Amino acid sequence: MAVSMREVDPAFQGAGQKAGIEVWKIENSKPVAIPEASYGKFFTGDSYIILKTVTKKSGVFRYDIHYWLGKDAIEDDASTAATKTLELDAALGGRAVQYRELQAHETERFLSLFKPCIIPEETEPQEHKTRMFVCKGKHVVHVYEVACARSSLNHEDICILDTKKKIFQFNGSNTSIQERAKALEVVQYIKTTYHSNKCDIATIDDGRLMADAEAGEFWGFFGGFAPLPKKTATNDAQSTHAYPTQLLCIIKGKAIPVAADSLTKKLLDTHHCYLLDCGTEIYVWVGRSTNLEERKAANGAAEEHLRVHERPKSNIIRMIENFETVSFRSKFDSWPQLSDVVASEDGRGKVAALLKRRGLDVKGLIKTSTEHEEEPQPYIDCSGNLQVWRVDGKEKSILPDIEQSKFYTGDCYIFQYTYSGDEQEECLMGTWFGKQSVKEDRDSTMSLITKMLESVKFLATQARVYEGDEPFLFYAIFQSFMVLKGGLSKGYKNYISEKGLPDDTYTEDGIGLFRVQGSGPENMQSIQVDPVAASLNSSYCFILHKDTLVFMWNGNQTTTEDHELSERQLDLIKPDMQTRVHKEGAESDQFWEILGGKTKHPNQKIPTTAETDPHLFSCTLSKDDNLKLYQIHNFKQDDLLTEDVYIIDVLSSIFIWVGQQVEAKTKTQKLAIGEKFLERDIRLEKLSLQTPIFIITEGSEPPFFTRFFTWDSKKTGMHGNSFERRLSLIKDGGRSTMNLKPKKRAPVSFGGRSGSEKPQRSRSVSFGSDRPRARGRSPAFNALASKFDNPTAQRNLSTPPPVVNKLFPKVGGGGNLDTSKLSGRLDTSKLFSKSKAIASLTASFDKPTRDKLMPRSIKTARSEPVSKMEANAKGTPMSSRKIGGLGVNKEDANENKVEKEEEEEKGGTFYPYDRLTTSSTDPAPNIDVAKREMYLSSSDFREKFGMTKDAFYKMPKWKQNKMKISLKMF
């Protein structure tokens, strides 16, 4: 590659030497680095260059370069950004993929760099102004500023109204839960960026015509409520034309069509540049033997091509030979398999030498001989409890400890491994299918493990493993693993009998040849192979035995560590027997005689699938069971939404994550989803259909899955859908939807050795997105609110008064206040200090006419003792009510029954009241969440409930629950 470092701008010196993001803005036709604090802030009149550097597992850097053009950017700056992008690529060795990003038409790969969104500004905002935005996207959000008018609202989009005091999120009736959850991230971004976290947040649901003060305040900005019309088609919404894929060669700056019946890589000449026009995107392919001027000409030809065809908003993606993207390669009928070492090391070496002479670090540009692959890690505790069953027909039999690491290639097995995790007991259940196992046994194995998983409510991680494709984690669990020829199951015996095949099942007194492999005592395997000389390999050690003769054969390319592993395996295969050690080339005649004579054998290690950088995909099954995949770039934990299924592909294995609120039908097809993913081979990796599959349920993520994220286990302990969870995190830090009781999973035995007790899990209280929220206002409440208002305080007349929900007095008068019926923004200190005024007002209230609306309970101050009057308050049964921010069905409430416990004088552990409430910031550990009150001492119980425990449990259950709700014990 011809590169002149004199053509590289000095601003790019030292760029791309560490993983992360770097940003430059074009000022006076030159790139100027901007500080990290300003990353993600873009102005509509400017042009920017963004470099994303990723360190691959091999130690080599991978680069993506984006140049972003604001809608008001001048043409000279836009042209400079495109040219300087080529110079930056040259400085990085000419192997970066380059993307042109137009404002409002950015690629999702670009937007993922600045999650949750970017909001370009015309100028630096001096003071806040009311604005409205439309949010689009389920995984990555596109944010567009629109006119602050009713006409901008519709049923298909989510709109955000940003006012000085409050941010409103309007959820169109046709939007999904996932879209609403992602839009809430934008709301949080606006609150942090433009309000310094000092403003309120409200969500408005399209089509909910409830007497809601926040809804009234929202519609007040548009002159009052009125039904929204159906969305009319716009230019963006209209279907785009289907452009035929066309390949063009750039010759002297002109794009000339290439005549070909089909697209193959042979059409691309390393001395030229090409355009691949795919309609919505146009690819620029750069041959490695082209110079910088030719590459600039190719860029200009791509721009001109889009102008001629009137498609200025199409994306332009540039790449150099041997660093093509998957999407580009997928357009061709045939493409040879690529690897990192395919690229021209000579060209990269020249670039590295030039950079080094200028004093720049060349780490990551070329892979030196001293670099080696990182040793794989199991990421779990490998000293746990292992149980193994052999499947025979429709039955399974547990193996004794001494036999549980010896598998026969004609059989199927189920294994269960329990170990200590970071916060709880973890469990892994898996299947292993031998290469010669029969379909009957494989089907039976899947049926048996499904029943085992059902018995633990699918809290265990499931693994599917095939012989010859075992992941490192599998070997680490078994530590010493043997694969023997033949099989012991009836299905295998019947199969070879029907086919007339010889039964070569391994016997200790017969001939056996084993290949020894592994990386250490915690990971070593003995694989039985055919006892012939051709099975030998110079890169391995082998163990051969016949009757009383035992040989250990060491290949010429083996190390002392390999010899040590062979000796360890020898103790398992033929312990306490005299062994003859043979080095390759010095074998005895007796050794060759047992193998049937001396022949040639290979000397290269058997290739194994190494783990690559993880890629995350969202998976959706269509009605006709077609798998739709969507790649999520620069992913993090928050990208895992509870309504969806995701796959992490690391080449050596795939991990399927299933959210708690995934549809039941989809949950039953999770393994089929993994198999369809392997068939699709979306990354063109030639994935084996027997690649190991791990299935993980939300809330039970093992460490070997969470290692791909910066993981917060508290987020997986939340209730509700993704929108409700996100809203709870924004408003109260997630306390209202948090499961305070940790999930513990005790080891389970299905073989009878340690009992058959099943692990228990605390019930999750969940609620649907379509449950109406209990809100409302009445003249009585307005009268009550006016009693507490400061008469001298100024009020914005366009803003409704504070939310104060209806009071439900005790039938028959008496002035008793039902505190579980209070809601909204009542200040509890004022409430109790003016109890007489409240009683006087509520005594004249009529019986409520809207019985279906159930008000929220008030937030009782922790330091304020609750009176006996409150504790004895009566109300309607709980059929649909918010409990600590959660809507609870009647069935769920009835399951949380409180049984009478022994009096505390008989012994027990007690906690202060503040540690037992749902709003506690320091919850008491290991308590029964349905019986929190039992952990209060007698004196504390009487102080909070106004009665003894015995009197409390003599009350009806619904009344007990109502009192606990009012005290925030639920």
Mean pLDDT: 80
Rg computed from alpha carbons, rounded to a whole number of angstroms? 34 Å
Tally of helical segments = 24
Anisotropy-based shape: flat
Largest sheet features: 10 strands, mixed
Query: What would you call the structural class?
Result: alpha+beta
Strand line-up in the sheet with most strands: 2-1-3-4-5-15-14-13-11-12
| Strands, count | 34
Low confidence ranges? 236-240, 340-348, 357-363, 365-372, 752-906
Beta-strand content: 15-25%
The portion of residues assigned to helices is: 10-25%
- Please give the alpha-carbon distance between the first and last residues: 69 Å
Description of the molecule:
The protein has 970 residues and is α+β, with helices and mostly antiparallel strands. The chain has a 10-stranded mixed sheet, with helices on one face. A hairpin with a 5-residue loop joins strand 3 (47-55) and strand 4 (61-69). Helix 1 packs antiparallel against helix 5 (292-308) and helix 17 (779-788) packs antiparallel against helix 19. The longest helix is centred in the first third of the chain and has 19 residues, at 177-195.
